[in-house]
Amino acid sequence: MDDKTLEQYFTAIQEEFIKIHKHFDEQNKYFNERFNEQNVVLESIYEIIKEYDTERKKIKADIWDLQKAVAELQQAIKPKQQTV
Questions:
Q1: How far is Cα 69 from Cα 50, in angstroms, rounded to an integer?
Q2: φ/ψ bin of 2: left (φ > 0), alpha (ψ from -120 to 50), beta (otherwise)
Q3: What pLDDT does residue 81 have?
Q4: How far apart, in whole angstroms, are the C-alpha atoms of residue 53 and residue 40?
Q5: How far is CA 42 from CA 31, 36, 55, in A?
Q6: 3: phi > 0 → left, psi -120 to 50 → alpha, else beta; which?
Q7: What is the pLDDT of residues 70-82, one digit of tens each?
Q8: What is the pTM of this model?
Q9: Mean pLDDT, residues 8-26
Q10: Using alpha carbons only, what angle is made at residue 54 by residues 51 and 60, rounded to the nearest 5 degrees?
Q11: What gap in Å lies between CA 70 and CA 62, rounded to an integer?
């Protein structure tokens, strides 16, 4: 093979590598964009779950406080019923 043919092959291979590199860069950019979009969605879901969990804990604490108050009232009423 002469130098000109080798140079043409080398140039063709180099151009293909550049095309492949550009293709992978575009794919990488697309994947990063999709990842960022999904990350925003997942962070939103996490915030909703965190808020729900906080509310659930507050409700649970309120129920416990009410049950405790009812038990105290029942204890306070029992001695009065026995004396009547």
A1: 29
A2: beta
A3: 65
A4: 20
A5: 16, 10, 20
A6: alpha
A7: 999 999 888 766 6
A8: 0.56
A9: 97
A10: 140
A11: 12
For residues 10, 12, 17, 23, the Cα torsion angle rounded to the nearest 10 degrees is: 170
Token look-up 């509310």 returns 55
pLDDT > 80? residue 62: yes
Tokens standing for 26? 């575009």
Return d(Cα 53, Cα 50) in angstroms, integer: 5
Total length of the chain: 84
The Cα–Cα gap between 25 and 39 comes to: 21
Rounded CA-CA distance 54/31 in Å is 34
Q: Which residue has the tokens 């004396």?
A: 83
